[in-house]
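Subject: for your reference before the review

Hello V.,

The reviewers asked for a structural picture of the protein, and I figured it would be easier to keep everything in one thread rather than splitting it across files. Below is the amino acid sequence we used in the manuscript, unchanged from the supplementary table.
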Amino acid sequence: MAIYLWVKKNWLRKTFFILCLSTILFISVGLHAQQSKQSTQPKHCLWLVKTPSNKAVYLLGSLHVFKGDGYPLAEAINEAYRRSQKVVFETDLAAMADPAVQAKILTMGRYPEGQTLFQNISEALRNSLKLKMNDLGMSLEQFERFRPWLVAVTLTVLELQRLGFSPDYGIDVHFYGRAGEDHKEIGFFESIDFQLDLFGKMNPYDQNAFLGQTLKDLEVAAQMAENMLKNWKNGEADKLYAILFKSFEGYPKIEKRLLHQRNIDWVKKIEEMMAEDKNIFIVVGAGHLIGPGSVVTLLQEKGYEVKQK
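And here is what came back from the structure prediction:
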């Protein structure tokens, strides 16, 4: 009961910010072999797309969990925001406060009466989960009604908060607040229901794989979280890709569901936005802008000039 009360009072208002960047759940010791080329000019996780109308479309890769001392952000990022009349996010972050959305998360993330997590995961996965629960000072039984995807997200929130990261300082949350205060036009790529369905309607096999890989990745979260933050600040896309995507190896269906298909859909929407007579500042999870199949790569393949700032 204690974990349920904690979730209802504390975690539900934050969990959606984690879901927005699904790849943040995959923090792995991964590759150190991939190195980004050193540049004499500082870089950021910010790209400029040249449009046919000569208006600017900026793409900012967000970390949905961040540290308070990471602010202020680089001037290049703030300048791109100031120059834009419209700001676009993955989804409507403010709608997370809607009680109906919170109720849906709990409904989708819990088993019905008579079913438990332990009936749906292997003994090996249960043992790994128990070790992590002990590490967090919690009992395994507190999670017995949670489905694997919700357990994975909850553990990630707890671990990152223990390391000093918080969704409250997320890059997207920061700009969502600023855009509202500055009375800028705000747009979204996806509905909240769509984003919740990405996890809530994941099949049982993929949910178990998702939880298992998350447990492995969290073993090295402390080691890699600071590297991830450093790579983001320095605009080291290759290194950030190595960290975020190592854990997708062996899970192409999950990667397609959480990233690639959505990137394709977003590129279509970005092309539609290019017809608008305004500069547009787009803030999405960094994992959507780096590596093969990313929004940046797809736009380049369509012939657009996309330059990292």
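For the response letter, the relevant points are probably these. The first helix runs from residue 2 to 20. The mean pLDDT is 84.

Happy to draft the paragraph if you're swamped.

O.
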